[in-house]
Amino acid sequence: MSFFQRLLSGVYEKEKQSKEHLQVEVQTIEADQPFNPYTELHLLQNHTDIIRILLQIDNKRCVTAADDNKAIIWNIVLGYHLAVLSGHTHPITSIVLLPPRRNNSVQLLTGSSDKQIRRWDVETGECLQVISTHGTSVRCLTLVDIGHNSMFCSGGHELCLWSTDGKLLDRFQVRSTEEADICFIIPITNDRIVTAADKQMVVYSIASADLDGGMEEDENKSISLVKKLPSHREVIRCIINIRDGYFASGSIDGTIILWKTETLLPDRYFNSKTEYQGPDKMYPYSIQCLMTVDERYILAAVGAGFSLFDSVTGNLVLHKKVAHYSKILCLTFACEGMFLVTASEDGAIRLWGRKQVIQEAMQVDTLPERKPGILGTFLNLRNEDTIDLNPEVELDLVGECLAHSGAVQVLMNIEEGFMSGAADGLLIIWKSSQLQMVKRNRLIQGKQQQLEEDILGMHSDSIKRHNCPV
């Protein structure tokens, strides 16, 4: 059995098992997939365990981290690894890019369950610093800008504030067991951060401490508790910033809460369910992923489907109850909003959109002017249209990308397509086959033209050497 046959057989077996647990029929895709451009694959095989982190560095590079204790920097244009960041003895749990240094060098931080934070040079892959004073497993890292200074926070069983050079500025001991396993941190307005642990969210402020001893202003910082927010009913899976003044949190109970940063009170509740546990406590409405769209809309992976909410009006804009055979773990937009990409525990990646939009995009000369933003492209909205859609409007399943043999954990949109990382340890770059064919043809034509010019130049030199008339 070939490599791809083994991969596909694993996917089909997962689909077969998942069908037994679904009451709503899952949409299927036509065999030839005429609207799916992403049929060229680049398999990047260097990880040996579950890929959990995928972060873009710039237009040409990204970094991944897996349960094999290492991070890898990749060239996403040509599809090969540039550097392997080895040194952690336990899985890497978080990665953040540091602001550019004065010499324009790019550095990143990795945090691990081995209680270490490491600082790396992206260009060389060299480990520049090992910070071992965190004291507990590092669950998350987040950059924060306080005034004109950049710092970063680390979370776990305690909350720490660091300078970008790795100096510990303050440590906050979390005493409550419900708040002591910090998994998420986001910065909000007025020099504050929000942490999430289990069902509980807590707001802290970062301010100048009243200390003597001639400390620099950017080092004279301390963490203080501001407020404990009302808790979710179940474990929190994600928190994100929506726009200035608002952030959102999602839980496995299916509820999404929109919070005001000014009052630190809930502003709206979305997708709140009374019977949220479902049969056998499978949590069918679990919020696995949240994404902000155009700084207004909240795109959520809800169980095996997805929903789009308007944070201003509170309306449900789009809803797909069942999009996969298993829960959706991550989603993103591709091709400047032409496609919504969803990835699931079933190992499948699916493309959603409107065939009319895609057909119009193929006719560039007649493409109508649309509303700015991702949603304007995705929903085919003209400038005079308002976003007042019926959530029962069906999106078209326009493509299915099958190559992973395990749950797809991460997705990332790139210029030429998108990338995916999964439990099978594979990192895959999905590219448009037509675009790649055009690029290769141009490359061949360019080489042929260069060859003809070289031959002509050699012929001209030969004529001059022999003093022959042209």
Automatic annotation (TrEMBL):
SMART domains: WD40 (SM00320)
WD repeat residue intervals: 85-130, 321-352
InterPro entries noted in UniProt: WD40/YVTN_repeat-like_dom_sf, WD40_PAC1, WD40_repeat_dom_sf, WD40_rpt, WDR41
Annotated keywords: Repeat, WD repeat
PANTHER family in UniProt: WD REPEAT-CONTAINING PROTEIN 41 (PTHR22805:SF2), WDR41-RELATED (PTHR22805)
Protein name: WD repeat-containing protein 41
